């Protein structure tokens, strides 16, 4: 049995995950070495060593979730526990959180910082996937099948938005909507939900008008103006995007060479986090950018494929939720670096510096690998057993038996 299970693992996912993480480690060292010394007074490998430790813990989490049967996650006891932990952690941030970059989103433990909202992403995916999978028989009953899980999603997004962290809140809400769209409900039910959403927006519009100065702070407005015309505001609001453009343009096709970036020498703020793709483009050119985009695209598309192939509604929604998380986060990061959308401060999955993000994504991909294993195992061995049973039943009366 164990041999059959091991043969059923999707090793292509494992290989792509490890390659992206190792590539991220190399680029974090290259992008952060100058910042670590000049800005923070650390050793040149400070951020690299911290990320390496995070990768080791993340790899352990990946292995555990890859071997842990995903179907256990849909038990009521497990769902209740992760919901409670998520809410308590997000409320605790408001009371005991550490403020950094105008957001109170982290718990500071020594020199390390943990961002609970990252782990809430996976909690929301598991919760919504399990609930909508259980509600398949009455998924189109609006009050009973649709609204209750959405209320939890909205509440969690609200707690994250008031940190304030609108980027993460938007990602979680988008992931929730993706799971909702793939849950199997009819178009009529979705139109009702859309109508309800429009009504809520209209009812809340006076609140947005009254609180516009608190919601649209100077910092948030600066991101919009910097996005609209980074060249005009290249010394102020558009500073990050302007220097990102310089890095992207300087790299060309071949790049300047690993470690040869100019923009990381104090021009591009925090080059090892949100804007690491700009450094990759500058140093490794189109080949480095292509490697990352192809790798992330493979994880997303493979996850969607697994979700489509999975016969279990919970496993299917779980796979699609994890894939959408990687895809949405990648789009927002790359869109911000390239000027396609305003900068939101979202890290690039598996590549950017950040222990919480790497741990969450590793655990999530481990779950995806486990779902894939069950799908391949059922397709390969269950069909074989069904065929053998069918043939035996046909020829049993003639004295034959197929093994």
TrEMBL record:
One GO CC term, this protein: plasma membrane
Pfam families found in the cross-reference section: FTSW_RODA_SPOVE
Enzyme class: transferase
Main subcellular location: membrane
Keyword Ribonucleoprotein: no
Membrane topology annotation: Multi-pass membrane protein
GO BP, one annotated term: peptidoglycan biosynthetic process
Molecular function in Gene Ontology: lipid-linked peptidoglycan transporter activity; peptidoglycan glycosyltransferase activity
Localization: Membrane
EC numbers for this chain: 2.4.99.28
Function: Peptidoglycan polymerase that is essential for cell division.
UniProtKB keywords: Cell shape, Glycosyltransferase, Membrane, Peptidoglycan synthesis, Transferase, Transmembrane, Transmembrane helix
Protein name from the UniProt record: Probable peptidoglycan glycosyltransferase FtsW
TM ranges: 12-35, 55-73, 78-96, 116-133, 145-162, 168-186, 193-210, 275-301, 313-332, 352-375
Signal peptide positions on this chain: none
Reactions catalysed according to its record: [GlcNAc-(1->4)-Mur2Ac(oyl-L-Ala-gamma-D-Glu-L-Lys-D-Ala-D-Ala)](n)-di-trans,octa-cis-undecaprenyl diphosphate + beta-D-GlcNAc-(1->4)-Mur2Ac(oyl-L-Ala-gamma-D-Glu-L-Lys-D-Ala-D-Ala)-di-trans,octa-cis-undecaprenyl diphosphate = [GlcNAc-(1->4)-Mur2Ac(oyl-L-Ala-gamma-D-Glu-L-Lys-D-Ala-D-Ala)](n+1)-di-trans,octa-cis-undecaprenyl diphosphate + di-trans,octa-cis-undecaprenyl diphosphate + H(+)
Family of this protein: Belongs to the SEDS family. FtsW subfamily.
Species for this entry: Heyndrickxia sporothermodurans
């Amino acid at each position: 049995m164990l041999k059959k299970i091991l043969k059923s693992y999707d090793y292509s996912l494992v290989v792509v995950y490890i390659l992206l993480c190792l590539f991220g480690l190399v680029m974090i060292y290259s992008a952060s070495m100058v910042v670590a010394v000049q800005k923070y007074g650390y050793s040149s490998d400070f951020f690299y060593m911290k990320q390496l430790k995070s990768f080791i813990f993340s790899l352990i989490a990946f292995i555990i979730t890859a071997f842990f049967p995903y179907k256990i996650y849909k038990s009521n006891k497990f769902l209740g526990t992760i919901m409670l932990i998520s809410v308590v952690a997000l409320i605790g941030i408001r009371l005991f959180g550490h403020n950094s970059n105008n957001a109170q989103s982290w718990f500071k433990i020594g020199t390390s910082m943990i961002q609970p909202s990252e782990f809430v992403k996976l909690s929301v995916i598991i919760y919504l996937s399990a609930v909508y999978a259980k509600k398949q028989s009455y998924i189109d009953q609006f009050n009973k099948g649709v609204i209750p899980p959405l209320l939890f999603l909205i509440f969690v997004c609200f707690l994250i938005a008031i940190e304030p962290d609108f980027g993460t809140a938007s990602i979680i809400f988008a992931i929730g909507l993706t799971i909702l769209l793939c849950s199997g409900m009819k178009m009529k039910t979705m139109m009702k939900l859309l109508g309800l959403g429009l009504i809520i927006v209209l009812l809340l519009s006076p609140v947005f008008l009254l609180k516009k100065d608190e919601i649209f702070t100077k910092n948030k407005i600066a991101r919009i103006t910097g996005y609209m015309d980074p060249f005009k505001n290249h010394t102020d609001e558009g500073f990050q995007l302007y220097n990102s453009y310089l890095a992207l343009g300087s790299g060309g096709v071949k790049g300047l060479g690993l470690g040869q970036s100019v923009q990381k020498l104090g021009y591009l703020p925090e080059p090892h986090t949100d804007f690491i793709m700009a450094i990759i483009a500058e140093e490794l050119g189109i080949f480095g950018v292509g490697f990352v985009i192809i790798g992330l695209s493979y994880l997303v598309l493979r996850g969607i494929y697994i979700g489509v192939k999975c016969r279990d509604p919970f496993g299917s929604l779980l796979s699609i939720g994890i894939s959408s998380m990687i895809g949405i986060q990648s789009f927002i990061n790359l869109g911000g670096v390239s000027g396609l959308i305003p900068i939101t401060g979202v890290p690039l999955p598996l590549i950017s510096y950040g222990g919480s993000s790497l741990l969450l994504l590793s655990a999530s991909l481990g779950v995806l690998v486990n779902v894939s294993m069950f799908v391949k195992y059922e397709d390969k061995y269950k069909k074989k057993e069904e065929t053998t049973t069918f043939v035996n039943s046909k020829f049993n009366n003639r004295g034959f038996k197929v093994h």
